[in-house]
């Protein structure tokens, strides 16, 4: 049973475009809104700095470890707004010159980098004219990452990772699962909410999903529907579409209550 106090958490939803500076300004404004609402931990969506019709654009803005304007922005925003900031995802250097790592970077409220997760599962989809192949420009990560925050133990994942429950089991017992995403409209309409609620129910923890949500300048439409879900699978807060912020309180007593009444995590037989 965790001893952390009730902690307000927030998901930022964006409709990012090809202008990195404009996206960072939008992100900063929304982080400020979350902080003003009392959030101690704020999550940005996947690809918050850039969504472009040119899939190679992210390669041109990729950053090396510890250096670059996107990382500087995250560090500064966390410190100025006094929040733990989970930076959605941003393009980081890969081991090959024509790809990036799709990485979540975490900064505490003093601007110190405390965790990094590189997206493990790379999205591939084809239906009619709709086609995606992340492996063409992204190099997969291979490490499961969680960290201790004011709201307890936090597990990191990104978008397509949602479809692989073994990743979340590998995190161990967490208080909060975070999933920045840019789900397509097609797959989001079919599977987004049901998968997120399943991850909360089976891991008996809170789930916070921070999404891209709307029609982007390149014509792409993302599903949105940023959600905060409790350990019983109840939706506490949501934003269907468009830029904005959703907040809810993570209550350790609620986690303990659910796990005591239905001790499914202790009943596991397979690992």
From TrEMBL:
GO molecular function ontology, one term from the record: hydrolase activity, acting on carbon-nitrogen (but not peptide) bonds, in linear amides
PROSITE patterns assigned to the protein according to its UniProt record, in alphabetical order: CN_HYDROLASE (PS50263), UPF0012 (PS01227)
Entry keywords, A to Z: Hydrolase
Matches recorded under CDD domains: nit
Pfam assignment, any one: CN_hydrolase
Keyword Hydrolase: yes
Protein name (database record): Carbon-nitrogen hydrolase family protein
PANTHER family tied to this protein: DEAMINATED GLUTATHIONE AMIDASE, NITRILASE-RELATED
Lineage: Bacteria, Pseudomonadati, Pseudomonadota, Betaproteobacteria, Rhodocyclales
Organism: Zoogloea oleivorans
InterPro entries in UniProt: C-N_Hydrolase, C-N_Hydrolase_sf, Nit1/2_C-N_Hydrolase, UPF0012_CS
Keyword Hydrolase part of the UniProt annotation: yes
Domain CN hydrolase: 7-252
